Amino acid sequence: MGRYILRRLLQAIPVLLGATLLIYAIVFALPGDPIASMYGDKRAPQNVVDVMREQYHLNDPFIVQYWHYISGVFQGDFGRTFAGVEVSSIIGSKFQVTLNLAFTALVMEAVIGVGLGLYAALRRGRAQDTMVLASTLVLISVPTLVTGFVLQLLLGVRLKQSTGIEFFPISGVADGLHSYLLPAFVLAGTSIAYLTRLTRTSLAETLRTDYIRTAVAKGMPRRRVVGRHALRNALIPLVTYLGADLGTLMGGAVITETIFNLPGIGQELFRSVYERQQPVVVGIVTLLVLVYILANLIVDLLYAVLDPRIRYE
Amino acid sequence: MNQSTPPFPAWGIPDPVRGVTGTEPLLAVDDLHVEFATRQGTVKAVNGVSYSLNPGETLAVLGESGSGKSVTAQAIMGILDAPQARIPRGRIRFRGTDLLRLKEDARAQVRGRRIAMVFQDALSALNPVFTVGSQIAEMFRVHQGMSRRDAEARAVELMDRVRIPGARQRLHDYPHQFSGGMRQRIMIAMAIALDPEVLIADEPTTALDVTVQAQIMELLAEVQRDSGMGMILITHDLGVVADVADKIVVMYGGRIVENALVHDVYRTPAHPYTKGLLESIPRVDRKGRELYAISGTPPNLLDMPPGCAFAPRCPYRQDNCTTEAPPLYRIGSTRGSACHYWREVLDGSHG
């Protein structure tokens, strides 16, 4: 088991290197000049441009620039923005916000998605089942952009206007967990819908297996048949989905963070791409890749816990 | 073959095989009908099946896939797939009580505890994510409220009883870590955990290789001898039946076509289908010759032919077979055959 984890972590190194190279190249290929963009409408003084181009190695060929960057990374230096701020300090403070948002969303997704899925699976073909299916379809069809603004308006602004109580803050992170509730729900929306459907199918399929028939024939009460014998097996695909979804949630936070004005890495990423802050973009995306890799590793390890037929070495 | 003109018996009501003692049998299925609602229409899987079982007795239910033999067993257990399955008619009396009229919680008292079942493919019938120990111990914990430790001790005893080597060490192993034969032993251990009065074994040896088949049959026979329970052995393998069964019921197209004491069937089958089955058993003294096979295919349960379901495949077929469904004619006190021409079949068997 330990060797397996080590091997997986070693495998992550080339993946991360590849990811940085790719992202570096993509930002490099973007049109526009980073120094010019700092000056907005005004024209940048030539001597400043010359100094900065030299200082940030912008005159070197692409691969040399990348080399400067990646060798810095290995020495713990993730580079600086063109304004001179260290990238690691920018990411450090913003990463926590996105992590909070993504984990709140993940918990909501797991609780609501699995809960609704079970509810529908146990009432298959009845009105409640159809209602759950229809509402998930709506959730899947409407883009985050729309649900975000609509919920912000209804549950944030209007509800406060009519009751005088602020149920859901609509901007910033000043209220701690409370301020994450609405954005997390918006972020998790589509995933909740997919997970609901996946749970419903998974449980319904498990309930048709031979070993469930055996459990019934053994005279086990229905609660035990569903809650223990079926659920434990039905959970396996759900854990995969949830694990893979953590990466999606963190990456998908760009829109949600913008709507609710949360100072996370999504917002930062958007701005950095705009300003061509190469080290920031590469840093953030590589971090997201790392999260993805770790989440997948945890999922694979959880497999072995949930399903005794799977063993690593 | 002998196909002389037969007498024309009247339509009768199928008669269950009565116990030798004549008292109330342990389990009696009476005129059972089971239907399944499907998109293509109503599948009539069981059409008026009656049989009975006494304590200590083994009843073999024989038939090919789709003959209704497993569905009948599932109806007895009360594990038919709801809501597609329906029982429009019939009774299943267990020690005099009609199980079909019991409320679900009363039915659950019987299920697993007094009537237990062993399934065909133990790999898929055991839950892959729980240890075999916990799956056996569950019987004691749920039904008798036993503590985990006591229940596990009982599980080890049971695993010893079904002769699983190193039972104590294997308690915490998972089903996939056992061989096919050992898995089936675990199924049996689970089924006999609470000393049921009736054990239904649904093709318990079909998924196993031949040497293991014999061991499992031996084990079942031994367990039954020790406990005196009644056993219903569902199979499509006539070879398995001869050694262990006391009486036999042959099913075809959801009906009983022949019932008899087991040695009577082997000596002189009274239904063309049974006869065909017996003749299709490979025999050493006929080595090199082509194997006999019953021609044609089993009936489509969605579209049953009028008259006798076996008629399209029957070598004894006469004109009336396709129009008049034969009742289960009584032949003596322990026998019945659902064939208008059972006499001819019987004579043919003698000759």
Q: Describe it for me?
A:
The complex is a heterodimer of chains A (313) and B (351). Helix content of chain A is 77%, strand content 0%. Chain A is mainly α. Chain A has a domain at 90-306: MetI-like fold, CATH 1.10.3720. Chain B is of the alpha/beta class and 351 residues long. Chain B folds into 2 domains: 27-114 and 194-350, P-loop containing nucleotide triphosphate hydrolases (Rossmann fold), CATH 3.40.50.300; 122-193. Chain B has helices spanning 69-77, 104-110, 122-125, 132-144, 148-161, 167-170, 180-191, 210-227, 238-244, 262-267, 272-279, 342-350, and strands at residues 27-38, 41-53, 58-62, 85-94, 97-98, 115-118, 198-202, 230-235, 247-252, 255-261, 329-330, 336-337. In chain B, the strands form 2 sheets. Chain B has an 8-stranded mixed β-sheet with strand order 6-7-8-3-9-10-12-11, with helices on both faces. A 4-stranded antiparallel β-sheet of chain B has the order 2-1-4-5, covered by helices on one side. Chain B is globular. Chain B starts with 26 loop residues before the first strand and ends with a helix. Chain A binds chain B through residues 209-211, 213-221, 224, 229, 232-233, 306-309, and chain B through 77, 79, 108-113, 116-117, 119, 121, 124-131, 138-139, 142-143, 174, 176, 187, 190. Chain B: It holds the Pfam family ABC_tran.
Task: Produce the secondary structure layout.
The complex is a heterodimer of chains A (313) and B (351).
Chain A lengths: L1 H28 L4 H5 L7 H10 L6 H13 L12 H35 L5 H15 L2 H20 L13 H31 L2 H8 L4 H30 L1 H7 L5 H11 L2 H29 L7
Helix pairs in contact in A: 1-13, 5-6, 5-8, 5-10, 5-13, 6-8, 7-8, 8-10, 8-11, 9-10, 10-13, 11-12, 12-13
Chain B lengths: L26 E12 L2 E13 L4 E5 L6 H9 L7 E10 L2 E2 L5 H7 L4 E4 L3 H4 L6 H13 L3 H14 L5 H4 L9 H12 L6 E5 L7 H18 L2 E6 L2 H7 L2 E6 L2 E7 H6 L4 H8 L49 E2 L5 E2 L4 H9 L1
Parallel strand pairs in B: 3-8, 3-9, 6-7, 7-8
Antiparallel strand pairs in B: 1-2, 1-4, 4-5, 9-10, 10-12, 11-12
Helix pairs in contact in B: 4-5, 4-7, 5-7, 7-8
